[in-house]
Amino acid sequence: MPVFDLATTELRDLNASLHALDKDGGNEEFEVTNPRGAHAVAVGIDAPVDVQIKGSVGYYCAGMNETANITVHGNAGPGVAENMMSGKVVIKGDASQYAGATAHGGLLVIEGNASSRCGISMKGIDIVVKGNIGHMSAFMAQSGNLVVLGDAGDALGDSLYEARLFVRGTVKSLGADCIKKDMRPEHIEILAKLLSDAGITDVKPEEFTRYGSARQLYNFNIDNADAY
């Protein structure tokens, strides 16, 4: 297994090696040591590789990921898994703001807390946060699922489109056009799979509340002007 020590190796060399992998190849394994908060670690991977990052990272780790499985054994700075297309990213610690922003697919698991704007403008990604999330999370979220085992901050789901939000704890406030919705059997099934995929076995889907779009802001209406 290749080991890249970022205390002695240039980050550019690590990312170049990951980009050179055959997207149709076998499941290779990489280990990254001493990341020391480096930015843009393991970005733009387009191959079925397993990357273990032994420490905390800075901005944009695992951005634009496609098919790779990336685990950060520490905390992640802003924009982790931004614009991810597929694969799986696991953060063993906390994640800073706008985790999973604009991501189109894949699974992002944050085992700690996530800061503000988690899942902003998400477009198909599934995000599971075992802790709490900050304010303005799922702002303009278009599709996908955001699962929160803890609490959510102010303005959850502001200007939401069709993403599904599941919160087990309390929600400080809902954003414009975000409302509480019934948890139907199909949502229980979706949530059960997401919890299983995230390795969570001691929590039941029935313990969550579902939130979604009231669909009142899709087109401008002068009667809704105060909500824009």
UniProtKB/TrEMBL annotation:
Domain of life of the organism encoding this protein: Bacteria
Domain named Glutamate synthase alpha subunit C-terminal: residues: 47-178
Stored Pfam families: GXGXG
Matches recorded under InterPro entries: Glu_synth_asu_C (IPR002489), Glu_synth_asu_C_sf (IPR036485), Glu_synth_lsu_3 (IPR012061)
Transmembrane intervals: none
PANTHER family (UniProt xref): TUNGSTEN FORMYLMETHANOFURAN DEHYDROGENASE, SUBUNIT C (FWDC), TUNGSTEN-CONTAINING FORMYLMETHANOFURAN DEHYDROGENASE 2 SUBUNIT C
Listed name of the protein: Protein GlxC
Organism per entry: Thalassospira povalilytica
